[in-house]
């Protein structure tokens, strides 16, 4: 017997299959099995050149970036060590020397 995933809404283990849909009898939530497969797939982060990034990598900034809320600018060629990948609008959480902690988008960096 195949193991069905728990309900994504209420985490109930009593899900059942009805055609192409999975249904939770406790909260009446319906979803497709394809949605569950997409949710479990791990997001791949790529830099501006298409190189795959991982936690702990070092990257270089490829464009001058204005720091919102201040007059500081992250210059082209700034090296950022030990990045941490996160979900959200900005994919990289890091600390830049002289500026401090901030978040960057992967499209503005390249892996060293």
Automatic annotation (TrEMBL):
<dbReference type="Pfam" id="PF03831">
    <property type="entry name" value="YjdM"/>
</dbReference>
<dbReference type="InterPro" id="IPR013987">
    <property type="entry name" value="YjdM_N"/>
</dbReference>
<dbReference type="InterPro" id="IPR004624">
    <property type="entry name" value="YjdM"/>
</dbReference>
<protein>
    <recommendedName>
        <fullName>Protein YjdM</fullName>
    </recommendedName>
</protein>
<dbReference type="Pfam" id="PF08274">
    <property type="entry name" value="Zn_Ribbon_YjdM"/>
</dbReference>
<feature type="domain" description="Protein YjdM C-terminal">
    <location>
        <begin position="46"/>
        <end position="111"/>
    </location>
</feature>
<dbReference type="InterPro" id="IPR013988">
    <property type="entry name" value="YjdM_C"/>
</dbReference>
<comment type="similarity">
    <text>Belongs to the YjdM family.</text>
</comment>
<feature type="domain" description="Protein YjdM N-terminal">
    <location>
        <begin position="3"/>
        <end position="32"/>
    </location>
</feature>
């Amino acid at each position: 017997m195949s193991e069905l995933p728990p309900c994504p809404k209420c985490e109930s283990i009593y899900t059942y299959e009805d055609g192409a849909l999975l249904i939770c009898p406790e909260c009446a939530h319906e979803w497709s099995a394809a949605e569950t497969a997409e949710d479990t797939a791990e997001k791949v982060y790529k830099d501006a050149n298409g190189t795959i990034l991982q936690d702990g990598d070092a990257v270089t900034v490829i464009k001058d970036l204005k720091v919102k809320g201040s007059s500081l600018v992250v210059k082209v060629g700034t090296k950022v060590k030990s990045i941490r990948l996160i979900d959200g609008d900005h994919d990289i959480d890091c600390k830049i020397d002289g500026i401090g902690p901030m978040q960057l988008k992967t499209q503005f960096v390249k892996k060293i």
